[in-house]
Design goal:
alpha+beta, Thiol Ester Dehydrase, Chain A, five-stranded antiparallel β-sheet, 3 helices, elongated
Length: 153
Amino acid sequence: MTDTNLIKELFFEDLYIGQKFISTTYTVTEDEIVKFASSYDPQVFHTNPQLAKDTFFKGLAASGWHTASISMRLMVLSFKVKGGLIGAGCDISWPIPTRPNDVLQVETEITGRRESISKPDRGLITIRGLTYNQNREIVQKLKSKIVVLKTIA
């Protein structure tokens, strides 16, 4: 496992299109699926393993927002930019549900890059983040714009 404290914080100048970052893994438990959903997305297919069997998902499924939160954690720990990952809009989808005991990993790729005209101390990158389960099935697709500071304005 990578010591995330040793990962260098990157500036806009350090980033290029095609650059990839791969996170460590995270195992999702049934208890945390139920706990998260009970607080933030209290629907039966997220909160009750027995009743979830008779729903669209045919079993307990993590909230998409739970999957997004885990994915964000994994991205932040594997892809460090100076000042943090500051979002400037995104498109997100969940092709298949995250299930109890899934082992998630995020692959982030820079797909676009441009300097800010109005704010010379920063740039904007576009990323594609794919969250995979242990079977290499995509459980989340993310396209996002991220504000990144420059070393020199």
